Amino acid sequence: MSHILDIERLSVDFATARGTLQAIHDVSFSIESGEIVCLVGESGSGKSVTSKAIMRLIDEENGSITSGAIKVDGIDISDLSKLSLQSLRGKKMAMVFQEPMAAFDPVFTIGSQIVETICRHDHNSTANQAWQRGVELLRRVGIPEPELRMKAYPGELSGGMLQRAMIAMALSCEPELLIADEPTTALDVTIQAQILQLLQELKTEYRMSVLLITHDLGIAAQIADRIVVMYAGKIVEQATAEELFTQPHHPYTQGLLQSITTLDSDKSQRLYAIPGSIPGLADLPEGCRFHPRCPYASERCAREAPELQDRDGRQSACWNVGQLLEGSERGKTEVIGAMRVGETDRTLQPLIELSHVTKHYPVGGSFFSRAHKVIQAVDDVSFSIRKGETFGLVGESGSGKSTLGRVMLQLERPTSGSVRFEDQQLTALSGARLREARKHMQMIFQDPYGSVDPRWKVGDIIGEPFAVHGNVRPSEKREQVEELLQLVGLSPSAYDRYPHEFSGGQRQRIGIARAIALRPKFILADEAVSALDVSVQAQIVNLLQDLRQQLNMTLLFIGHGLNVVRYVSDRIGVMYLGKLVEIAPSERLFLRPAHHYTRGLIASVPIPDPNRRREFASVEGEIPSPANPPSGCRFRTRCPAATARCAVEAPALRAIGSDHFVACHDPL
């Protein structure tokens, strides 16, 4: 088969305030016509730089190609003029970005931007023909009412629709190569499944090649023909998906595969995590760049960098492949004897109880008139969390998970209903009494970058709760903070450093240290690991499990990564459009889901095994607006089993078994 893309010994440098830094070094791989190749690795490994180099977008970021060649359909683009590049972009190659909101201009409609792209590359098309072509493209990528969406602005579309529109614009000139840079990272598991299904269909329909960049190996297993693994700016392994998952030939690949949390992960064992973190471009080690984190490292690895070599039709860059293939015992997971498995004790007293909690936001009003519509973010939710358990909360974006969590901590007051914490009615507290109660309730935020003040030193960030609640003398603050740093696996020397000096995983540890500073009884972890790489994610999950046992904490774990939520949780609640639709012990929920929405969520999770590939079974469509929810059962517009009764009667949450509740007229 012919190659649509050939990259030969490519190196890219960036000019920075610290001098010239090499982002990728000696990278070589190719993509055949009609092939899907996945580029995987942790953040900082050079995946996105490689994709931008192919499109020559690095020119706009102080980057430059210092050596090597990039050939698209035989044309070397590494030194093409900007005018020549414009003729290739769109026609020969196109790109789908991770953040479609940043890729679209917010002041122009979706349609005007698609039309502009078509007219720029097809001079024979009139504006009206380009408009009709745009409508057909939006319809093809699954956007309902495409004529209306063409007239909409980017801010009026949901994340899933916007990503589809981005794909439609990329396809507008029928490119031979589509580059997709983390196109599903910010999406719910159901929308992710729809986008991946769409990419597979479009590849066949348009006979395209696809370069998919991802850090989710489950996605790579389900969609890739071949996988290229990058680490610290270099390729360390290339193989077919089946070969790579069956027997990795590099310790880094092996570590990534071991770090995956699956629906089968043993809850009695710690998750495997690659020790340490990926080095910065200014601090690359000598020899093999992975050797400081490698369980197979030898003296030669520290001195001499291995070349990418062919072995049995695949490639790897490792001096100790033979030792790895022999099946060393190093790196296996360790059993945590004290970790709970299965169901929690139903006799345990509730720590938090919610009773008919509702949170509505008025919209559409003005200073002179009252709002005539409300966003029903949370609607009549009642449940409890028992002392010492981890309660998981899952559901798509817009289901009300985070709003419910903020109401539980009284960061937002409920419209109606009550929240009881031990013997206190939190909704009746205010001022000093509420501040006193909050000592026992803390939060870990999703964004490890935005949740800490970049102008504060780490010691001040972690020590702030002591200052607010005044229970530690200033002379004792440093000692207490250093103990917390050690507890979360950081060096006490971090006390005098700033957040920008740490990686994402380390910043999340700082956030955790701050949250546990007052030894709270309850922790709300809101998407605390969703923004992290798979190995760093495993490190943080292990840390939370350890702290939960050491400090006897109760945890509410909100997430859309169902694999991780299942692993950490004793019980799980499923939310949809402001309503709780199912509650069950973790294992029972995944083995025997009772609600059709729960089953759809589980079926949408990609399996990290190329030999178990399946159609991306997903929930059809997108979650409706909470400002205009459907009548009756709110899930009925997407439910394959909906009946006439579902349209007129909202199902109540009722018991169907021991500790198992569901809101469905016809449960599974």
TrEMBL record:
Ranges where the ABC transporter domain occurs: 7-257, 352-602
Signal peptide: none
An example molecular function term from Gene Ontology annotations: ATP binding
Primary location group: membrane
Localization terms from the record: Cell membrane
PROSITE patterns: ABC_TRANSPORTER_1, ABC_TRANSPORTER_2
Topology of the protein relative to the lipid bilayer: Peripheral membrane protein
Keywords for the protein's UniProt record, in alphabetical order: ATP-binding, Cell membrane, Membrane, Nucleotide-binding, Transport
Gene3D superfamilies the UniProt entry points to: P-loop containing nucleotide triphosphate hydrolases (3.40.50.300)
Family: Belongs to the ABC transporter superfamily.
Protein name, entry field: Dipeptide ABC transporter ATP-binding protein
Organism for this UniProt entry: Paenibacillus aestuarii
Taxon lineage: Bacteria, Bacillati, Bacillota, Bacilli, Bacillales
